[in-house]
Amino acid sequence: MSEVTRSVTELINEFAKMPGVGKKSAERLAYYVLRLNRTEALVLADAIRNVKENVRYCRNCYNLAEQEECEICRDPNRNREVICVVEQPRDLMALEQAGTYHGLYHVLLGRIAPLEGMGPEQLTIDTLVNRVRSGTVREIVMATNPTVEGDGTSLYISNVLSDCAVRVTRLARGITTGSMLEFANKEVLADALSGRQAF
Q1: Weakest-pLDDT range from 59-68, 111-120, 177-186, 190-199
Q2: Is the domain defined by 6-54 classed in CATH 1.10.8.420?
Q3: Boundaries of CATH 3.40.1360.10 in the chain?
């Protein structure tokens, strides 16, 4: 690509670093930003700044939050006896959109993937175990992605929790093996949640 201006080239290069964004898509995004009027562009820049400055992980479940606890953990109407374990906050959002689950969540912030250098110690498993040992949790719903790594992570967690008085279930296999929760439609997710089975 011939250099248009240094600023435009830098913007294209930054967009190209995003997952799933190739060089052509990065160019389209950069030219979209150039077409925005100054106010719109600064609103976009402020939204990015606000996310980086204000968003943190919930101290209980590691969902995205702007306070110490996320909205779900603060909601008094949620069933506190059930915790649904997911890999990432985007998986939690996908399950919430299905509208059938009313318990709490726990976000692992990844999955066990030794080839990528991700072991159990890099995840939030210790915090999950402490939540279960608090005594109020009756069921853990394993909702990791149905991949080799996701299933391995679920198996590891169920083994860690084997000495706790908690029922461990998993999503029904209405979700195709190898797919990602964030791409499943809400009907499939609703069926998977309602048809969950013992792990």
Answers
A1: 190-199
A2: yes
A3: 70-198
Query: What string of DSSP letters covers 103-123?
Result: EEEEE-SS--BGGGTB-GGGT
Single pTM value for the model: 0.78
Q: Are 29 and 20 in contact (CB under 8 A)?
A: no
- What are the tens digits of pLDDT across the range 19-28? 999 999 999 9
- Whether residue 142 contacts residue 156, with contact meaning beta carbons closer than 8 Å, is answered with no
Q: Which two tokens stand for residue 71?
A: 């909205």
Residues 6 or more apart in contact with residue 59 via CB below 8 angstroms: 68, 69
For residue 48, what are its two tokens?
Answer: 């990015």
- Evaluate whether 114 touches 57 at the Cβ level (below 8 Å): no
CATH annotation of 70-198: 3.40.1360.10
- CA angle at residue 118 from 20 to 115, to 5 degrees? 75
Residues in contact with 156: Cβ distance below 8 Å, sequence separation at least 6, in sequence order: 112, 120, 125
